[in-house]
Design brief:
The chain has 374 residues and is α/β, with parallel strands linked by helices. It folds into two domains: 9-138 and 322-363, NAD(P)-binding Rossmann-like Domain (Rossmann fold), CATH 3.40.50.720; 142-320 and 366-373, 2-Layer Sandwich (Dihydrodipicolinate Reductase, domain 2), CATH 3.30.360.10. 41% of the residues lie in helices and 22% in strands. Helix 6 (112-128) links the parallel strand 5 and strand 6. The radius of gyration is 20 Å and the shape is globular. The termini are far apart. Bound molecules: NADP nicotinamide-adenine-dinucleotide phosphate. NADP nicotinamide-adenine-dinucleotide phosphate (NAP) binds at residues 13, 15-19, 37-39, 42, 65, 83-87, 90, 108, 110, 138-141, 171-174, 177, 321, 324.
Amino acid sequence: MSSKGKKPVVVYGASGYTGRLVCEFLRQYQIPFIAAGRDGKRVQEVMDKLPGIETADYEVAEVSNETDDLAKLFKGAKVVCNIVGPFERFGEPVVQAALEAGVHYIDTTGEPAFLEMVKDKYGAKFADKGLLLAPCTAYMYTPAEICARICLEDGDIDTLEVVTAGGFVPTFASTQSIYSLFSHDAKYLKNNVLEAWVPGKGYEVYVPGFAVNQLVHPWAGGNLPHVFKEHPTVHTVRQFSGNTDRDLMEGVIAMQQQFEEEVRSIKSESKRKATLDAMVDAVESFMPPRELTLVNRSCDIATGTGSAGGRKVVIQSTSPYTQTGVIQAATVNMLLAQPPAKVGFATACEAVGHHYLLGQLKSFFPLKLTITDV
Ligand SMILES: NC(=O)c1ccc[n+]([C@@H]2O[C@H](COP(=O)([O-])OP(=O)(O)OC[C@H]3O[C@@H](n4cnc5c(N)ncnc54)[C@H](OP(=O)(O)O)[C@@H]3O)[C@@H](O)[C@H]2O)c1
């Protein structure tokens, strides 16, 4: 594909549950895109079923998960949205290709090992080229960060407790990614030092809109402890995620306990990796139904405190996975309009602004923002 007349955005993993949502919302922003994946026929079949696709300006590309092939595809574009996970397995060639082709990179990962690897290995290289490297541009991370950043608008906040509680149905790749999350210590920030959570333990938290407390979990520790590690005033960050389906959450916690006993205890690294790969490969492929606006609710909460109290910021909304489609497309929209406010390893909130992203979420979903003193 010549780079002349090239579409400005490549959605890699367009055939997946989330990839198609990103394409759907790029269409809402009237942004031309390339829908890419390892199987062009499958990508086309998915695109053919996208609501309103007849008015989208797009083309389909088949590409392998190899750096050279991906870089050739990305050349001449401005942004790549990477939605192929588990990212620890498939992500690095995509980051390398984005750097080689000189395009901004955003993805939907929440895998901390991948996050730390790209930050350390590629953050400065992206910054040198004036490019953004923004993993976690997705539900579970961006709305929670919007809440956290609104807390920080009061200058005396040094401690953040962040909770994401959604009624979502995990997708195939999300389920596979859970094993990748469990393979590493989930970390929180305690007085400027990253500490490991005790694995396999859930926490009860109050979530507005629910009569009974919800069961949440550090999941993989979240991105915010890493994002705020070098922050001048914030010294402590604890981030939790949960599904409002209690059975599902109890299942996730039991799964992690079993994983600790049966996989993390294996001494040989190669044997441990082989066991992990076998577990990931054993997850049967499935495609959950599209979310229902009136059923699949979401709630993101950040409580920010300092010596003299603080504030609690809550976003109540709907359709968590669909929010990822908007968050990605809205970030792309701003990146095409102006350079990012921060380059190198950064979040979408830092690059395009948390109030902008909040506004875009409000444009597409019923959304209630509540700010209270605590
Ligand atoms: N933070 C969040 O809230 C959030 C939200 C959504 C997604 N995510 C993450 O985003 C990732 C994708 O999720 P999803 O919901 O779209 O999952 P999905 O429906 O299972 O789709 C996975 C995508 O990856 C592609 N893929 C799988 N194996 C591949 C390989 N070996 N080479 C190239 N492409 C491959 C699939 O292509 P085929 O169709 O050809 O198999 C498909 O396009 C997951 O890691 C998930 O955890 C996070």
